[in-house]
Amino acid sequence: MIDPYGIAFGSFKTRRVRMTDAAGLFPILSDPERMKYMPEPVHTSLDQVRQTILAWRGAVLFGVHILVVEQDGMTMGLLSLNVDQHGVAIGYRFLPEAKGAARRSVAHIAKWALQYVHRVWGYCHVDNIPAQRVMTRAGAVFEGRLHKWAVFPNVSSEPADCFVYSATSSHIS
Ligand SMILES: CC(C)(COP(=O)(O)OP(=O)(O)OC[C@H]1O[C@@H](n2cnc3c(N)ncnc32)[C@H](O)[C@@H]1OP(=O)(O)O)[C@@H](O)C(=O)NCCC(=O)NCCS
Fold first, then answer.
1. Closest ligand 1 atom to the C-alpha of 98?
2. 8 Cα–ligand 1 center, Å
3. How much distance in Å is there from the Cα of 134 to the middle of ligand 1?
4. pLDDT value at position 1?
5. Measured in Å, how far apart are the chain's first and last C-alpha atoms?
6. Domains in the chain, CATH or no CATH each
7. Angle of helix 22-29 relative to helix 46-58, nearest 10 degrees?
8. Separation of alpha carbons 173 and 168, rounded Å
9. Using one digit for the tens of pLDDT, what is the confidence trace for 87-132?
10. Pocket residues for ligand 1 (CB within 6 Å)?
11. Would you state the torsion angle of the CA atoms of residues 120, 60, 163, 161, taken in this order, to the nearest 10 degrees?
């Protein structure tokens, strides 16, 4: 059983998302730029953020872990880890001021997860350049283009092409 809560790396630490995170996560979930390639709508109230957190906490039953990444006790961003038969799919969203935190977190958590599974992977919209940079800078390998892979409701109701990246037990040292 994978348990990604309480992983410490440098001054960073992961923990399970809590209902009391609503205010700390509002700046991410209410920012149209940060939400552009996310599956949820842009949030407009703390109550809406609480509803989302409730759904995220429930998703653990389906193997989806939503982690808050803190640095010195301050919220920096979120990681999602979706554990299934292919390995661990990773997602991430961070505050604009948390420069470098996404890359460091993805790199560390991917390496950590590869103790338990053979494959850590993620996809992002072909136009989401910062997300692609996070993957490559974290040491993941570009695998290819997934045609009409996912709907990004804040962009279009049509599925968009995505790039897929992975770190595997044979590619990461
Ligand atoms: C993805 C995300 C975590 C990246 O955060 P970040 O690392 O602080 O982002 P930055 O603004 O530093 O950009 C990352 C890199 O992309 C580069 N970049 C950003 N926009 C760019 C553009 N339009 N063209 C070229 N390069 C660009 C930056 O220069 C930086 O390069 P570096 O790695 O050489 O330093 C953040 O943008 C985010 O939370 N986005 C919303 C959620 C999301 O889209 N998540 C990904 C899908 S799971």
1. 8
2. 23
3. 6
4. 62
5. 23
6. 8-168 (3.40.630.30)
7. 100
8. 10
9. 999 999 999 999 899 999 999 999 999 999 999 999 999 999 999 9
10. 34, 37-38, 91-94, 99, 102-103, 124, 128-131, 133-134, 137
11. 160
Burial of 9 (0-12, 13-18, 19+ CB in 10 A): middle
Q: Is the pTM of this model over 0.90?
A: yes
- Banded pLDDT at 173 (limits 50, 70, 90): low
Q: How many residues does the chain have?
A: 173
1 CA distance to ligand 1 middle (Å): 32
Q: Residue 130 C-alpha to ligand 1 middle, in angstroms? A: 2
Distances (CA, A) of 50 to 46, 53, 133, 151: 6, 5, 30, 24
